[in-house]
Design brief:
55 residues, 3 helices, single chain, mainly alpha
Length: 55
């Protein structure tokens, strides 16, 4: 059985950021709702990175 991967909050933020930025590069101009649908992340995550406010 596969063990769950455990990581830090900072590592997860980095992964989410990469996923969102790659989605924007691949799909061009997309809305926050589209980012959430494509990436399966919650809309607030997409909102942070789309607006460039995530640390």
């Amino acid at each position: 059985m596969n063990e769950p991967v455990v990581g830090s909050f900072k590592w997860m933020k980095s992964l989410n950021r990469s996923l969102i930025l790659n989605t924007i590069r691949t799909h061009g101009e997309v809305s926050r709702a589209e980012i959430a649908k494509i990436t399966k992340l919650t809309p607030p995550n997409g909102h942070q990175y789309r607006r460039g406010t995530a640390g």
